[in-house]
């Protein structure tokens, strides 16, 4: 089974899974790739967004732990890009099945875990230190986890099982392919089958034609 990030309760340690062709903007033919970490279904994920999330996570981790006890954060930028891509892939897989995750469902799951752990502050600390989730991204974490469960449940499966894991993998692979995910090569390449970023050597920005 694959896991993006395991959740707090056994029901969410599931499979897992917690990452457009060269589209041109209408304005002067400038590539939407410029300044983007990735393009997913024609939607840009700006490099600035990735940098902001990485900074927030590093600052939160530094504030929450002594320097000699901080978790390893190698590859954090790449993992952040993967998470942003994955969020959109899960959303597409849900939409393809006529499913969605409501704010109420997110709040209910979060409240249940917070109660079990002794409060929302304790929950946020656990997610920060164990899952690498900054406070602002806690709702995203739950949206992904609930979405994964719903995708498996739509096929009558439990995502904690091998069968459920296979269902989720197939759904996300199909969604990633349909979205035509393109990633800035500095972060890798999105492999729909692996549902992950892998090494890449492809060009990102179109090359200028050689002068005649």
What's the quick description here?
Helix content is 48%, strand content 8%. It is mainly alpha-helical and 212 residues long. It is globular and about 45 Å long.
General description of the model:
By secondary structure, the protein is mainly alpha-helical. The chain has helices at residues 47-64, 76-96, 103-117, 120-131, 138-154, 162-179, and strands at residues 36-40, 43-46, 182-183, 189-191, 196-198. The protein has one domain. It has a three-stranded antiparallel beta sheet.
Fold topology:
Elements: E1 36-40, E2 43-46, H1 47-64, H2 76-96, H3 103-117, H4 120-131, H5 138-154, H6 162-179, E3 182-183, E4 189-191, E5 196-198
Helix pairs in contact: 1-2, 2-5, 2-6, 3-4, 3-5, 5-6
Round the Cα radius of gyration to an integer and report it: 18 Å
* Average residue pLDDT: 82
Number of domains: 1
Indicate the low-confidence ranges by residue numbers: 1-30
What structural class do you assign from the helix and strand content? mainly alpha
Widest sheet: strand ordering? 2-1-3
Major sheet:
3 strands, antiparallel
Strand/helix succession: EEHHHHHHEEE
Strand content: 5-15%
Shape: globular
Proportion in helices: 40-55%
The total count of helices amounts to 6
